[in-house]
Design brief:
Layout (H helix, E strand, L loop, with lengths): L5 H6 L15 H7 L3 H11 L4 H4 L5 E6 L12 H19 L2 E6 L5 H11 L5 E4 L6 H12 L4 E3 H21 L8 E4 L3 H13 L6 E5 L2 E2 L9 H9 L9 H5 L4 E4 L7 H4 L6 E5 L9 H4 L3 E6 L14 H10 L7 H14 L18 H13 L1
Parallel strand pairs: 1-2, 1-3, 3-4, 5-6, 5-8, 8-9, 9-10
Antiparallel strand pairs: 6-7
Length: about 375
């Protein structure tokens, strides 16, 4: 590529490196950091494995793991092409949460093999951040790793998106004088993010029966044939009115639309929503509904893009979530910890809400410390 391209110039050589935290300028330094001194640390950890978090970097380091099967909006581009994204995630961990992170791109897309490899690698880390793994495999992989490992496992595409979405919806409702429990919510997309957003909103106060989830074939409901796995669970949990049909039927009179599908929703369907509603069109780079169109029918609009107001950005969640979890050496990340993270994100800007500012900027330095404190308290 031409050297004049700033994107390629920035990425040349990668975006991260390993740096020493101790001096190595004398024989005494070497004897303390390496042999013979290091042997005493090894013996202590062998006797008490919990000391590893205190005397090695594992107490503050996360593995960012992918198989390259669902990278951004690019799809299944494989592990090597996924590395620039994983590097980016790792530097965001460091910049915003003070957490070290190592990108690990696995050359397998077999769930059993991924679970085996990550389990084998786990002693080197204090947490596992799963990234860009396609649904429905991501559900099984996260569940099995969470059950197998004594450290937090967090699939950011699911839970990071869900946490920030709950924070944004909480503030949008607050701005409009609405109660979460009264909102009729439509979620377009039943993949990893759609499943997690649905469960997060319900955990945060939205009534399960008031949520309607749609996939590419229409509305999920308990009488619909051909469902399985997570979609069956959602169908049984949501849609108390047993609405059937397509997205336009779901949006008829709805208060909230949350798009996490990557598909396009016609303006005619959005126009069927109740007046003064809320639209979060989070597909990136092309929102399900363009913000200019959504603004004609909704009072508050958010996207996943940085060039429009109200960016629903995972960086508001995952650095603080892991910072808090590692701080108290949590063994898992619970729903209560996720709800606490969402409340903390919402609280950062709760006193200065406008229709164009329902969530903090991704660069707001107050966010990660607030999230970490809330997550740590919820974990304890």
């Amino acid at each position: 590529m031409a050297s004049a391209d700033p994107v390629f110039d920035l990425h040349r050589g990668g975006k991260m490196a390993v740096a020493s935290t101790v001096p190595l300028t004398s024989r005494e330094d070497l004897s303390l950091a390496y042999t013979p001194g290091v042997a005493r640390i090894c013996e202590a950890i062998a006797e008490n494995p919990d000391l590893a978090a205190e005397y090695t970097w594992t107490g503050n380091v996360v593995a960012v793991v992918t198989d390259g099967s669902a990278v951004l909006g690019l799809g299944n581009i494989g592990p090597r092409a996924a590395m620039p994204v994983m590097e980016g995630k790792a530097v965001l961990f460091k910049q915003f949460g003070g957490v070290d992170a190592v990108p690990i791109c696995l050359d397998t897309q077999d769930p059993d093999e991924i679970v085996r490899v990550v389990t084998a690698l786990a002693p080197s880390f204090g947490g596992i951040n799963l990234e860009d793994i396609s649904a429905p495999r991501c559900f099984e992989i996260e569940r099995r790793l969470d059950a197998a490992l004594p450290i937090p496992v967090f699939h950011d595409d699911q839970h990071g998106t869900a946490i920030v979405t709950l924070a944004a919806l909480r503030n949008a409702a607050r701005l409009l004088g609405r109660d979460l429990g009264d909102l009729r919510v439509v979620i377009s997309g039943a993949g990893a993010a759609g499943v997690a957003v649905t469960r997060m909103l319900i955990a945060g106060g939205v009534r399960a029966g008031n949520v309607v989830v749609c996939d590419s074939k229409g509305i999920l409901h308990r009488d619909r044939a051909g469902l399985g796995g997570a979609k069956t669970e959602l169908a049984l949990l949501t849609n108390g009115g047993l609405i059937a049909g397509g997205i336009e039927n779901a949006l008829d009179g709805a208060d909230v639309l949350i798009g996490v599908s990557g598909g396009t929703i016609d303006e005619s369907a959005v126009a069927r929503m109740a007046p003064g509603g809320i639209v979060f069109a989070l597909a990136n780079p092309t929102p399900e509904v363009h913000p200019d169109v959504a603004s004609r029918h909704a009072a508050v609009v958010a996207t996943g893009r940085s060039d429009f107001p109200n960016q629903i950005n995972n960086v508001l969640a995952f650095p603080g979530v892991f910072r808090g979890a590692l701080q108290v050496r949590a063994r898992t990340i619970t729903d209560a910890m996720k709800v606490a993270a969402a409340d903390a994100i919402a609280g950062v800007v709760a006193s200065s809400l406008t229709a164009d500012a329902i969530v903090p900027s991704p660069l707001d330095p107050r966010v990660a410390p607030a999230v970490a404190e809330a997550v740590a308290a919820a974990a304890v």
